[in-house]
């Protein structure tokens, strides 16, 4: 194709595009909506652990939105554990952290600069600098703005030797909802350098993991290491592939993928490369993935591609669709909230990915499906076997078969059973003799990525 | 911010910018998303900028080549829902222009170079500045991009085997 032909082609394509009316008004509406959506009430859930007839701690009841005493629930514990709101308060009011926190002049300058220049712009009353850090590639700052009982976080980045002014002007216009474990991307000017910062409430501890996998019998395990900086973590890169676990007061409160960014790349063009990225995204070192099967599944118009590793057992990836961007299904259809970093891509240009286990001779993946504009895990389970088995059986924890389906000529069987019901997938001969089997780690509730339950319990 | 200059800029340029965003992304929905996100970033720097278009192009291509998503933070204001809210590949692909499909197969940076050079007619030097790379890199990306499009769009005489698909 010549340059002139491409120009003509571009013109032909661009003719299709019709802008909507009042673009500026829409832009302002989007800005207001985004800001409102990210405002978080930091006193919203205080009532859940407050005792009925007792005076609650002042910190729990000082907000206008707190319920009146007669509406408070019954006593649930003599010494209530810290509530979500308490953790939020701890985070919002935390002293500055990061390797520049020991530079009082810098801290003061940055704190003052954000307070003086951005409060009006944000429409908030107070700004608290909670993170100030310098890496080889960038200067990072995270500020939490509060107004009454509402809070919102802003992340800014600049060149490593940038000034306070650079920091104010730097990075992307990035505001984020505040949660007890606040994880935000911090970008330098125009997003050239990127990092991810995680801030847990002071007193909590963050562990990281990049190691885990299936054992020979298909059981899942993962190894965590304590983060040296204890209650905060920062990583640079365009795709930070780790699992982060936060523990507070002796209890694990959250497990999440460090970063919800997945490097783009075509599935059809290079399934093995996509497999590698997806497994890395899951916080694991990938084996060599090869295409085991490709074809069209019932209920799907697009081709599906199954990629599995050697050696086995290992993570299996089933991708449906030809699009360069992909959505990994981690949640069940009926789950309304999204506590995991499950992608919520806008439909038509996203391929769907389901993750499962590839054992010796048999691979099982719960199929992704579209649901309400999201990609979720459905009731059907894709099984592929290379053993020449006649049927596939799904076995529950009581060793009872609860679903079975014949294997087609191309080695595929589709079983239907509710999430969490099955412990083992077994390939059997026409006489019912077992050929091979694999443990099936499934989702009963919540969010799961491979064998890891992702959750928030604040 | 209620900067009249910014408002005028958006109202005057939105159509052409949306077309550029469409060529960078391939769907109107994604183009609106990319453009609105980029304009909001531009707005925060508006008063300090002498060359807002160059700055905006930089934001757009960086955003395009390095997109990340926050949970629940992707919102797009539109009167009509996207034509389809779920992946439904075959019909969509069948309707899609061959060139658009071929562009989808290019690396994001290569696609950006082609759009900047051959749609916006921006010089190699300015393209390099926008992308933060060398002029040589712009030249090689443009050349490789055109060659790749030529290869993908050439008439096929037989069905591709899976091996050929992987190699293409």
Describe this structure in words.
The complex is a heterodimer of chains A (458) and B (168). With 458 residues, chain A is α+β, with helices and mostly antiparallel strands. Chain A has 3 domains: 193 residues, no CATH class; 39 residues, no CATH class; 186 residues, no CATH class. Chain A has 7 helices and 26 strands. In chain A, the strands form 5 sheets. In chain A, strands 13, 14, 15, 16, 17, 18, 19 and 22 form an 8-stranded mixed sheet that branches. In chain A, strands 9-8-11-12-26-25 form a 6-stranded antiparallel sheet, with no helix packed on it. The longest helix of chain A has 19 residues. Helix content of chain B is 67%, strand content 0%. Chain B is built from 9 helices and no strands. In chain B, α1 runs antiparallel to α2 and α7 packs across α8. Chain B is globular and about 50 Å long.
The number of E-state strands of chain B comes to 0
Tally of individual domains of chain A: 3
Radius of gyration of chain B: 18 Å
Which stretches of chain A are low in confidence, meaning pLDDT under 50 for 5 or more residues running? 44-81, 336-348
DSSP helical segment count of chain B: 9
Total strand segments of chain A: 26
Distance between the termini of chain A: 57 Å
| Principal-axis shape of chain A | globular
Seen as an oligomer or otherwise, the chain set is heterodimer
Mind describing the biggest β-sheet of chain B? none
Mean pLDDT of chain B: 73
- Percent strand of chain B equals under 5%
Residues in helices of chain A, as a percent range:
10-25%
- The computed structural class of chain A is alpha+beta
Structural class of chain B: mainly alpha
Largest sheet of chain A: 8 strands, mixed
Percent strand of chain A? 35-45%
**Can you count the helices of chain A?**
7
Percent in helix of chain B = 55-70%
What Rg of chain A do the Cα atoms give? 25 Å
* Cα distance spanning the termini of chain B: 48 Å
